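Hey, I'm writing a tutorial for new members on how sequence and structure tokens pair up, and I'd like a real worked example in the thread rather than a made-up one. If someone can provide the structure for the chain below, I'll link this post from the tutorial.
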Amino acid sequence: MADELVRQLKGKGLAAMAYSIETISSAEAAVLIGESALVGFGYPIYGSDLPDPMKNFMAGLPEVSARKTLVFCTQWLWSGDGAAIGASFLKDKGYKVDWGEHFLMPNNVTVSIIRLPYTNDPARLSIILNRARKRIEHIAEKIVSGKPFRRGFNLISFLLGCLQRLPYRRFYHKLRNDIAVDSLTCIDCGECVRLCPAENIYYNGNDYLTRGSCILCLRCYNFCPVTAITYMKRSHLQSRGEPYRGPVENFDPNVLTGTNNQRTEY
């Protein structure tokens, strides 16, 4: 979504770049923000809440003076106030959030214990992405015209967000040590270690272990080449097909971590 938003803004005459927060330091982010007339923040929403890496990133941001800001989130079904909750982490730092949007994306929760529907079918994914692109085009037009647009910044959306966020925050810490590596299936490729944004999975010289710092992003589970990751001691059900592999064919999650030797700005 960030990639498409950059493309749309460039097509409308604005200079735009996107960076993964996993590839830049707070100091580098401060320089980029200082050089920009407008700054945007995007993240996947978890239980109507921000992922911990984004919370930590926002906490380290510099204070600014009424900097025009966009906040957007990706969600599966709904989040209520997914963009507004991100804006709440920025308001005391001087970021003036004039634009907020929610983009519906495919479900990435494919763990066996929660049998939610998901798909890797390119045709079905394309339908979802095309709908999201229409919203991206809409928010890009609002940005270029300077007209504020903030979806979900109201009391009803806040209350709907709380329906997910309050129980999610209550049980979140109890779920952070449920990821494990099946040593009998593991091929020792280290992909789970490279992909983990929380350094939860590590190799001790003999086995792949966890620290209990999982943020529930499911990258390791979804992108393990041999589905050797378990959740709540359950392996992936092969009858359901491969776990979710991303919104487009040949999606490479390493672009988020900068470990694929490709440019991390796009």
